[in-house]
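## tool: complex_structure
## caller: assistant
## args:
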Amino acid sequence: MTVTKAKIAEKINREVGLPLKESAEVVDTILELIKSTLEKGENVKISGFGNFILRDKGKRIGRNPKTKVEIEIPPRRVVVFHPSQVWRREINRG
Amino acid sequence: MKKSDLIKMLAEEKGLNNRLATKVVDTFFGAIKEAIKNGDRVEIRGFGSFELREYGSYTGINPRTRERIPVPPKKLPFFKPGKELRERVNNKQEK
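## result:
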């Protein structure tokens, strides 16, 4: 099964008691706050969950594996996620 | 930004009190953790997807002592950023 924003909003509705429409709105707000923080160049650290870390990658030469044509991949900034120790332990115990 | 900052900003933007905003944020991340624990995938358009990836065992080396250490197989949550997040993070970059 795939969990989507709607499913998360339903859970907030059930467990927190916020009306469904507002639950959907807070999900969007949380996601937008995380995205705009990363967009500003700031890392996001959620204790118990994990860290969204920005990494600057230098340029490198890539190759189309089919045609073997070389192209330069320009420098870019990417997001990597590190799950927290707590979460990793929860998943791997037992 | 840490979780307490996110809670404060959510509370301010949505006019929630701090206690309610804390519950919302904890439930949000709890929902993702629960889904992954159940073996489900989490897919959030514009943000990204979370899934559980399995890694096999391998022999690691402690770089300080050069000691060989067997690393057991493990499962780790993996996040793949979505298109919108990838582009927004990359576009604002000062060249």
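## assistant note: The mean pLDDT of chain A is 95. The beta strands of chain A are 2-3, 44-46, 50-57, 60-63, 70-73, 76-83. Handing back to user.
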